Amino acid sequence: MKELMLGNEAVARGAYEGACAFGSGYPGTPSTEILEYLAPYEEVVVQWAPNEKVGLEVAMGVSMAGARALVTMKHVGLNVAADPFFSACYMGVGGGLVVVSADDPAMHSSQNEQDNRWLAKAAKALMIEPADAEEARWMTRAAFALSEEFDSPVLLRLTTRICHQTGVVNLEDPEPRPEGKYKKDIPKFVLLPGHARLRRHEVEKRLLAATALGNDSDRWNPIFPGGGDVGVITSGVAYDYVRETLPAASILKLGLTHPLPLERIKKFAASVKKVIVVEELDPYLEEQVRAAGVAAEGASLRPYFGELNLPLVEEMLLGEAKEKVTISLADVEIPRRPPTMCPGCGHRPIFKVLRDKRIRVMGDIGCYTLGALKPLGAMESCLCMGGSIGMAEGLDRFGGEGVSGRVVGVIGDSTFFHSGLTGLIDLVVNGSSATILILDNGTTAMTGAQPHPGSGVDIRGGEAPRLDPAEACRGVGVKRLVVVDPYDMDNFEQVLEEELAAPEVSVIIARAPCVLNESVVFAPAVELDLEKCNDCGLCIRVGCMAIRVVGGRPEILADLCNGCGVCADVCPEEALAIPEPAET
What we know:
Rossmann fold; alpha/beta; six-stranded parallel beta sheet; 4 domains; seven-stranded mixed beta sheet; single chain
């Protein structure tokens, strides 16, 4: 049976077919949908974790019990999970353990472009890379057995174009689900230095055995003989571009990319006159191929950053891109559409106040990162998940005149539970006077409204315990805490000034549900009286996509406006107003 599937859906299908018992992770583009597609398989326990580290640690416990587990994250999420990931590679597994790293070449939705193939090499983990949706299915399915055979976590390295491509997938019956059985093994599972030194030898034996598999395996590392003098070594989505560019070429397609099958690579290279390595991001394959004594080129033929695409690969292999039939947009006027917050979003009035008060805002990862863009332009940093709190502490302490005492760390509720608590503890115990602003909309909005510990629901929509960020703050020693309505800008401004002046840590929680929540209902669209309007532009500076300028004058787009009233609040001429509800 065949079915058209998204790459992420195919990974979920492969996990189900591979008798996976448990799935966890933290939502992050481009990996988010994997767990969402896994959740409907009732045989699998599926849950969101507060962060990637916790997700992997729970999965390690599942593996110790002898059951199979899957953990999903985007590439920067593996940084968060790196501590248990590196040690897990020494510890080994019970039941098969598959760790998904979804890399994001070209940074479509990420703050960096790191290539996580290096982390597999550094951690000494097995790594596999599918080239399409069908390979995403069967490789995920096979990865659990591979993990158990070599006593190693397997890193399933995806990229955006694998996660989000659609392809035909072959559906197979799931494997029989093994009965998990915990076996106590102190030297294996307790990584005291004495035990870890012994496990280090086991890791090396595993890598040698996995290298032998890669050298001999036509399934994991197939060679496609062809004509011509050029042979191409490639992996992942790059293979698809190579095959389309040179359908008759000799190609070595690597599916098991750590450890690399260097003997197979040398054998392939000996069959051609010239070797070109086609890969995205860093020259991970190329450097190791060249170090093994194979003359190869690749990185010098392509840009040093960003995704590959067909024209780029054609230039690499043919010297120039083939002529393509395209629709010319040169004469079409396309409006600029920068990313922006939704109409009525509760983050907008918060950033409007922060901008107008000239507050130094240390930002974080979430929808509210858009507060850095004009016309709001209120955010001055965005480093990593949870980074806003520590950065606010440091800038407030050493910012000097005009900065110290005017610093706010802004973080969302999901990010706060992910990695904000430890930073907040640091503020408390080290006597900081920084002010932290938690934007609490009850969901992980940026990645598609996935639940988090403060949402009160689980991944399947069932009821779950709800943790209150306010209680968590008080629990770590915060004494000054105020909850505000973000739409009441006057009150928020007053509270902000009071908390900035406080000599100790203070937390403000701006609480309002995400406007995409079905239960959120505002008033009818705001009405504009142009006779009262003096074209001051204050409503435009709110940055709402429901307000535009036509002929130099503002106009309300009623089909977008949901009547939150922020623009009316800032209008000094009362030209904007929320209409009175109709009498019934």
